[in-house]
Amino acid sequence: MGSKKINFNNSKIIMSAGFLKQVPVSLPHIVFSGRSNVGKSTLINKITNQNKLARTSSAPGKTVTLNFFETDKTFYLVDLPGYGYAKRSETEKKKWSELVEGYFKNFTEHIKLIVQLIDLKVGATADDLVMLDYMNSAGLSYIITATKADKLNKTNREINLNKLKSENTDREIIAFSALSGEGVNETRGCIARVL
Ligand code: GTP
Ligand code: MG
Fold it and tell me: Could you tell me if residue 91 is inside a domain?
């Protein structure tokens, strides 16, 4: 598989889908998954070099639709609403699971890669483990991006990274920080390699 030269800066929003029938299918999907507030929308902005492409917030539960950004006419970056946000109402949780679970079930063949975000300081939560199990059993291709790496000192960073590596052997694991920019190019590289 050749690595394609992609202009990540050439990205624009093309759909905010609240319903599965709105999901665009003309290009392959690169999906950003993880718990609410882990940094999915922030990572998309870093990858595309655009501060305001995906909306971010310090309060969890910001992204509520499936947001599709078209990059270089080559693929869609898919920003998902995060899981594990306890304060959502039952109605909102039901809507979330119908939309996100329905998306994974119905668009498996369009998903080229999942970038699974795990907070490096928090480590894998019970919900993260459910997601990892799901991706493994569904045979979905994924990498792990360990976010907010800037919040740890050198020692704890290594301890937590090694733990993630031992729990997910043979899996690409990238440390990411929105503050320093580390991990952005590596994540771009992984995306380019699957196309
Ligand atoms: P939902 O849309 O609720 O699912 O959340 P999300 O995963 O899209 O999180 P978002 O990108 O909105 O980021 C949540 C908060 O974390 C924001 O305040 C970001 O500025 C912050 N954040 C994201 N990445 C990093 C990082 O690498 N380091 C630090 N220190 N903060 C980060
Ligand atoms: Mg978001």
Answer: yes
Residue 34 alpha carbon, nearest atom of ligand 1: 7
125-172 confidence digits (pLDDT tens)? 999 999 999 999 999 999 999 999 999 999 999 999 999 999 999 899
Tell me, what CATH number does 25's domain have? 3.40.50.300
Do 18 and 65 form a contact (C-beta atoms < 8 A)? yes
The boundaries of the domain holding residue 56 are 11-194
Q: Which parts of the chain have pLDDT scores under 50? A: none
41 CB near ligand 1 (under 6 Å): yes
| Assigned domain for 2 exists | no
d(CA 54, CA 75): 16
Report how many domains make up the chain.
1
Residue 4 lies in a domain: no
Output the pLDDT for position 79: 97
The alpha carbon of 44 and the centre of ligand 2 are apart by a number of angstroms equal to: 9
